[in-house]
Design a protein that fits this description.
Two copies of one chain form a homodimer. By secondary structure, chain A is α/β, with parallel strands linked by helices. Helices cover 37% and strands 18% of the residues of chain A. Chain A has nine helices and ten strands. In chain A, strands 3-2-1-4-5 form a five-stranded mixed beta sheet, with helices on both faces. In chain A, helix 3 crosses helix 9. The longest helix of chain A is centred in the last third of the chain and has 25 residues. The radius of gyration of chain A is 20 Å and the shape is globular. The two termini of chain A are 15 Å apart. The model of chain A has no long low-confidence stretch (mean pLDDT 95). The interface between A and B is large, with 42 and 42 residues.
């Protein structure tokens, strides 16, 4: 029978989102496995395999699965291992040979994995706005800032499989904000959802400017968006600032790999109406003249509920 | 007859260095064409072709030349054109279809070109310390700072052919030094030979610290090296500072492409004894923990007099 389908699995701390996908990027069947309580990798793998076998059966597509692609925090494309993923209780102590284990549990169906940002880039290239592009950078703006870099039609994995940590490039070199990674001044500490909330808290403390945000107890990036939607000036200035910083960082990324486009993805990217203009302005002001107004700033075209599964599934099409 | 040789041409403002190279990286024959007075591209091409034909004849290797590779300022790998090269009087006004013109003048011998930093990276990968490496970054520290990035065994040209302008990534984001490119704070304004001289002048003005450098009229990077060799403390501190800045920049480059090594090339790289330690210290302090003490810092292994020709020649081996 023709192997005309793939499975995509997006592995997160709380759950694993699983779906069967066809070549057009249609998710034929999907399901979610709750996973916050797993502490043992083998148990996790066994239950994930059972879940996948069930949706294969439900969709009546046994024999048609070419392979399984997974987006996994700290997933190493070359080795198929997970290395010290702090948010996965079943994989935060030592290396887990995740791809091998799942492949065995699935009766030999080939398994490939990479980190979630690389998966997102592959998904965009396979099914989304990056279709036909050979050089682009995908930036995921969520709780953190991740990136998937595509050069010459290939995701950049680097010498060790972990390339593309653009969220941890240094944006503010002196007296920058402390990052979870232990460094200071990382892009992520300013331009992630948490970074935006941090900017809001700092600015509210430092100024007396009236703002709707003063009514919130614990401010989130979503609150800043809501306030901006209400016309709040401080909230808009926070997005201006965030966009300006993103543009400065993007200018350096362009100088590295001269991409056709930078593509934004993730919760924070939904604030396009507030971020688009300051990003473009700052990116073009900070990049070498030869790239000024030449690099596109795009936003993901994938349906949000499917995006994580599609990204992961895209990896499985590479399997010969 | 077997096409077992290539020609490398390093095109500069003052001269074109030309050489016939075999597969082992031996320069069988070389010559230099003075070129500072050319203002017409066709004249330049015709005379360069005559020069090349002469060394082919002198070396008695007619029929054995597989192709010609050239390292050219602002050379575009994809199109074979030179675009607004400010230092070439015969190519600073409009685009010059340099590769096509030379190929025609050479009776059809295939010609490929790229910029000099990419050529250096190819040379190192073909004949030097990067032999067998698939992921590395070559940094040329000369009058300016250039770079050639290799990912997955291929030089990164980017969407438009101009990728790898790492000398113009922003090192100092606010109140940085003005760069020739029009931006401020570029890595090149601090860590090139001119940048080092600029640091020396600034520090001599800002402090009263005694230094041998106070005896020089116009300070060059070479003077700083000579003073350091004499034990001059200020000169040594200038190298410490330069190395620290380079290390900070390299940390971000590593976060982009996770290379196996960063390889230094060019006049300033000869100050290895003063730069090596501060670069390593700063690079490892500023990079994500996962790459700490894992990325090699290497220096070119190519003989200096041959390096530019070898780099350019390496491009010609790609010709099928």
């Amino acid at each position: 029978m023709n192997k005309d389908l793939v499975i995509g699995v997006d592995v997160g701390g709380q759950s694993a989102k699983c779906g069967i996908v066809d070549m057009m990027g249609t998710v034929l069947k999907q399901t979610v496995m709750r996973s916050e309580n797993y502490t043992d990798a083998q148990q996790y793998v066994d239950d994930l395999a059972a879940t996948l076998k069930q949706i294969i059966k439900d969709a009546d597509v046994a024999g048609r699965i070419r392979g399984i692609g997974m987006g996994v925090p700290n997933g190493n494309y070359y080795t198929g291992e997970i290395e010290n993923a702090v948010n996965l209780k079943w994989a935060n102590k030592s290396k887990v040979k995740f791809a091998d284990m799942l492949q065995k549990a699935m009766g030999g169906i080939p398994v490939k994995l990479t980190n979630d940002a690389n998966a997102a880039a592959l998904g965009e290239m396979t099914y989304g706005v990056a279709k036909g592009m050979k050089d682009f950078i995908m930036i995921t703006l969520g709780t953190g800032v991740g990136s998937g870099i595509v050069i010459n039609g290939q995701v950049v994995y680097g010498h060790d499989g972990f390339a593309g940590e653009l969220g941890h490039t240094t944006l503010v070199r002196h007296n920058g904000r402390l990052c979870n990674c232990g460094k200071t001044g990382c892009l992520e500490t300013y331009c992630s959802a948490l970074g935006i909330a941090r900017t809001a808290r700092e600015w509210l403390e430092m100024t007396d400017e009236p703002s709707l945000l003063r009514n919130y107890e614990e401010i989130s990036a979503k609150d800043v968006k809501d306030a901006a939607d209400e016309g709040d000036n401080l909230a808009k200035k926070i997005f201006d600032y965030t966009g300006t910083l993103l543009g400065e960082a993007f200018a350096d990324f362009i100088e590295f790999s001269a991409p056709e486009a930078i593509i934004l993805f993730g919760g924070v990217a939904r604030n396009r109406e507030y971020l688009d203009e300051p990003i473009k302005k700052s990116m073009n002001a900070n990049v070498l003249p030869l790239w000024r107004n030449k690099v596109k700033l795009l936003y993901t075209a994938l349906k949000e509920s499917d995006a994580a599964i599609l990204g992961a599934s895209a990896l499985a099409w590479e399997i010969k």
